[in-house]
Write a structure and sequence with these properties.
This protein is mostly helical. Helices cover 71% and strands 0% of the residues.
């Protein structure tokens, strides 16, 4: 009977230990990526910094890219979410402002590194789109569609194209440095792009 009890106890770590290990791993990834690029980061370094075994990392995340993405989604994404119901235009301003703030801080370097890695690794590019870009793109398009349905935007507005016109420009400036990457840039961008999409029922 004792043998069975011991075997059961050793099947896995207690939830509290798992949570602590998870937090340590996320901290390790974030800290290491302040010192080096995504390309230079290794699973061995993360395991050593977090004081966990490599098998633990590979059990939860099958690759370095999924590990980095998990950290981004956990640590950066909550700051980007829309907290209250707004008009389509207010939603755009909110999302753009938060994204520029995030990319202008320490997370920006990590995102740029993942995108760079994705140019030679299609799986990384797809994972970045699926886990990071797609959920936010879908949410923004839904906001724009609601605005269109409510008469805020013109009936011929294509929400997906409007979204891409704005956020494509943000990624362009973020990655290529074609101009100041500031909140003012974001405000002016949204105003410029959405100007031709406002319906006659909404005052500018």
């Amino acid at each position: 009977m004792k043998k069975n009890v011991l075997a059961t106890a050793r099947k896995g770590r207690p939830p509290s230990q798992m949570a602590a290990s998870h937090a340590a791993i996320m901290d390790a990834v974030y800290t290491l990526l302040q010192e080096k690029s995504v390309r230079d980061l290794t699973i061995e370094e993360v395991a050593k910094r977090a004081r966990v075994g490599k098998p633990t990392l590979y059990k939860w995340w099958p690759s370095k890219a999924t590990l980095v993405l998990a950290m981004l989604c956990e640590r950066m994404a909550p700051n980007l979410e829309k907290p209250t119901v707004r008009t389509a235009e207010e939603s755009l301003h909110f999302r753009v402002r938060r994204l520029i703030d995030a990319f202008s801080g320490p997370f920006g370097k990590i995102v740029a590194g993942l995108i760079a890695e994705g140019q030679s690794e299609p799986a990384i590019r797809q994972a970045f789109f699926d886990r990071w870009v797609s959920p936010r793109r879908t949410a923004t398009i839904a906001d724009l569609q609601r605005g269109k349905n409510a008469g805020e935007l013109r009936s011929d507005t294509e929400p997906d194209l409007l979204n891409d016109a704005i956020f494509g420009a943000i990624y362009y400036r973020f990655l290529l440095g074609s101009g100041p990457f500031t909140r003012r840039f974001g405000e002016e961008l949204v105003d410029q792009v959405i100007r031709g999409h406002r319906s006659g029922n909404v005052r500018s």
